[in-house]
Amino acid sequence: MATQTGKIARNQEKAIVALLSCPSVPSAAREAKVSQRTLYRWLDLGPFQRAYREARQKVVSHAVAAIQGAMSEATGTLRAVMKDSDAPASSRVAAARAVLDLGLRAVEIEDIEERVRAIENQIE
């Protein structure tokens, strides 16, 4: 149960770990050794929701960092395929298209981030 300070109990921490690693709430409840009803009730509690959201954000952040770490290798692979005259033309075109698509998306994301920063500055 959430404590008066807003922290969650140890068994709730175990439930969050189970929610992050199991494919469904029923299987997470089994893994955490709590009833489904209890887990669903916890999911309605503010402190539990916040802790679960923070845990999910950390998992996503770690996954994004891992993906970013592999991006230079992926770019190198795309470049190698794109330049490989022995590779089928369809592979070279697919690699070139992927490089262009990713490049354009990166520019769009930077533009959106800049716009969001400008809006946030106006709000402040």
Q: What is the total number of structural domains?
A: 2
- Tell me how many strands there are: 0
On the 0-100 scale, what is the average pLDDT?
89
Per DSSP, what share of the residues sits in E-state strands of 2 or more residues? Answer: under 5%
Class based on secondary structure composition and strand pairing:
mainly alpha
| Oligomeric nature of the chains | single chain
Low-confidence runs: none
Q: What is the ordering of alpha helices and beta strands? A: HHHHH
In short:
This protein is mainly alpha-helical and 124 residues long.
Task: Provide tags for this entry.
single chain; 2 domains; 5 helices
Describe the secondary structure blueprint for this structure.
Layout: H1 10-21, H2 25-32, H3 36-43, H4 46-83, H5 89-123
Helix pairs in contact: 1-2, 1-4, 2-3, 4-5
Provide a descriptive summary of the structure in words.
The protein is mostly helical and 124 residues long. It folds into two domains: 1-69, no CATH class; 84-124. Helix content is 81%, strand content 0%. The radius of gyration is 22 Å and the shape is flat. It starts with 9 loop residues before the first helix and ends with a helix.
